[in-house]
Write a structure and sequence with these properties.
mainly alpha, 177 residues, 79% helix
């Protein structure tokens, strides 16, 4: 096995482990409440902003690579990964200190809210290995494979933060603080 194939095998093993661990740890921590913790009522608008910023940076990153600005593309994609991780940390911290806020809307809006929320959650799990695999392809300088995978990864990744903002806007009136 050549060194690139060996590196890719190690990446894939790590990607599989991370892709299983992140949702598992988040699910476990979601059920953990820190006793007597001050609720982090100010966090949801911050993570909604982070979601929105991630979406904007993803679009700019695609523009950057299509216009030959490779270094800018790399920096923006690294920023998007960092923002996604920051979002996740803030989301878990909020839910460890605060009760979940139920959606208070009625009628058809209730169904719209839950369709958006559920698709957002499910795709946020699916996107983890896709982002990591796409990143690994670029890191290993397998640019043709990277481009092919990025065409699948990008629209899904872009979808995840946009409904995150929509869900926040729909539930914001029902937050207690």
């Amino acid at each position: 096995m050549d060194s690139i194939a060996l590196k890719e095998k190690k990446f894939n093993r790590g990607i599989t482990i991370i892709s299983i661990l992140i949702p598992l740890v988040v699910a476990i921590l979601f059920g953990v409440k820190i006793p007597d913790a001050e609720p982090l009522w100010f966090v949801p608008p911050l993570y909604a902003f982070i979601n929105g910023l991630t979406a904007v940076l993803l679009v700019i990153a695609v523009w950057a690579i299509k216009t030959g600005k490779r270094r800018l593309h790399q920096n923006l994609m690294g920023s998007c990964i960092g923002l996604s991780a920051l979002f996740l940390l803030m989301y878990v911290a909020y839910h460890m200190t605060s009760e979940s806020t139920p959606y208070g809307g009625e009628g058809g809006w209730r169904y719209v809210y839950y369709v958006i929320l559920i698709s957002h959650i499910l795709l946020s799990v699916v996107i983890i290995p896709l982002v990591l695999k796409t990143y690994a392809k670029a890191y290993l300088k397998q640019f043709e494979s990277h481009r092919k995978l990025a065409k699948i990864t990008f629209p899904i990744w872009l979808y995840v933060p946009v409904p995150g903002v929509i869900v926040y806007l729909m539930i914001a009136p029902y937050y207690a603080h």
